[in-house]
Amino acid sequence: MKALHLVLIAVLTCPSAFAMQGAGNAPSKKQAPAESAKPNANLAFVTEYVRELYAVENIRDSVNGGQSNGVTSDEMSNAIYFGTRMQIELRAEVKTLQEMRLAPPFDKLLQSIIGFDEHKIGLFQRLIDISSAFIGGPKPGVDYGKLAAEVPQLRAQLDDTDNALFEATPLIFETLVDSRGDSQNQISHLIITRAERAQLLSEIDANFGPKLDTKNRSYQVGAAVVLKAGLLKNLKSSDDPWE
Known about the structure:
This protein is an all-alpha fold. Helix content is 61%, strand content 0%.
């Protein structure tokens, strides 16, 4: 995990990540830059990220949190169900993200997210194993006290990973920002059209609805709020005039 955090920090602090072009390369008034932006891969990535946020939030809702400190058979079965559903979703996310390609420096961001998902799969597997040990009555040679004490530690690691993903959300939004300067050498445009921007906003609103306005948000809802705020920024869309 520490290595993944370091990779993420390195990308976030990379001075060349969002460098503007020099004034001599600025686009002429009301004309798009000669260099063609390639928004499709970045848009697909952010769209998938929104889907992943909703999928994880939906699983949490469907099992009412799913992570209990209790040790009854029903509670352990619920924990196994929750962990298994999360693993299925996370494996699907990893597979999808592994097929994507982003230009540097965002390729490192993509790999970091994959690493976080894979780490969470392992944590959920350990929770599943512990929950399974409690089902069917006591077994010889099993230290149930030690296993029970491990559960909150695993949950804390899951929270830490979700928080790391949440903190990466501003950089995820930056994949939609056109780093080329306008005639004033200012970053003023996104690489997506007005219609694509509206579609992303619509998906966020449709998926999360009133949760976006609540105070005690999950990391997933918080990330959706950050993305929505970015999309509502005073930045022009790619099909707006360049000045």
